[in-house]
Each structure stands twice: as C-alpha cells, then as structure tokens.
C-alpha cells in the first residue's frame, strides 16, 4: 500500500492528529471540514454559513489533490440538529453539487468540534 498525504496552503491548516486528505491508489480520502476560518473560529451565520465554509475548504483540499468537486464519489455529513438544519444545509449543498451529486449519508450527532453545527467529509477519485 502506498499513501500520499495531501496538504495545501489554500485550505484550513489541519491539526497535528490528521491530514487534510490522503491519497491511496486513485482514491482521495478528505478529512472532515467544519465551518471555520483559517484561525479556527466558527463562521457566523449558522448552519448555512458553516456549510458553505466547510464545502469551500473541502473544495480547496480537493484542488490541492488535483481534482474538483466533480470527482467526489461519496460525501458524509454530520449535523448536530438534523431536524432543524437538514433543509437549510441542503440548500447550500445544492449550490456545490447542482447536478450529478455524489452518493451521500447525513447523520445527526450529539456534538462536533468547536461547537460546529455541521461537518462534511468525502471520498473522491483521481482521473
């Protein structure tokens, strides 16, 4: 097995316990992104603003791996208030995946780092 660590200055810096993404073969495993700024502060504006920030960060990581959102095969989304935030999160999500969206799972969770309302991770494929 070979694995290549992905790091890009364009995305939020990872904590020392994980990589922004890892490539193995032709598969890219992108770590979860929450809606934070580069200085690790939650963006203001609730779940929609946090979803946008998380997806922008994920997009930057994918770009660092040499692909774009069109290469995403599967996304996993975690929401701290699934019943309240599912629809507004989806409104923003559709801006990033307007057609041919990837497979997806959305799960309600008790808590996320830094009090975030949403976290998004994905698996993508290299060309």
UniProtKB/TrEMBL annotation:
Coiled-coil residue spans: none
Superkingdom as given in the UniProt entry: Eukaryota
Gene Ontology CC, one term: mitochondrion
Transmembrane regions: none
GO terms of molecular function: deaminase activity
Pfam families reported for this sequence: Ribonuc_L-PSP (PF01042)
NCBIfam families the UniProt entry points to: Rid family detoxifying hydrolase
Family: Belongs to the RutC family.
PANTHER family: 2-IMINOBUTANOATE/2-IMINOPROPANOATE DEAMINASE RIDA, MMF1
Protein's name in the database: YjgF-like protein
Organism of origin: Trametes coccinea (strain BRFM310)
Higher taxonomy: Eukaryota, Fungi, Dikarya, Basidiomycota, Agaricomycotina
């Amino acid at each position: 097995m070979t694995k290549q660590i992905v790091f890009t200055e364009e995305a939020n810096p990872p904590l020392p316990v994980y990589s922004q993404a890892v490539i193995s073969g032709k598969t890219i495993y992108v770590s979860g992104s929450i809606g934070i700024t580069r200085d690790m502060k939650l963006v203001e504006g609730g779940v929609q603003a946090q979803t946008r920030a998380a997806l922008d960060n994920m997009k930057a990581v994918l770009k660092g791996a040499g692909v774009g959102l069109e290469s995403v095969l599967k996304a996993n989304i975690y929401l701290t208030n699934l019943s309240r935030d599912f629809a507004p999160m989806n409104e923003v999500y559709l801006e990033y995946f307007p057609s041919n969206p990837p497979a997806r799972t959305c799960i309600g969770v008790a808590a996320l780092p830094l009090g975030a309302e949403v976290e998004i991770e994905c698996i993508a494929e290299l060309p």
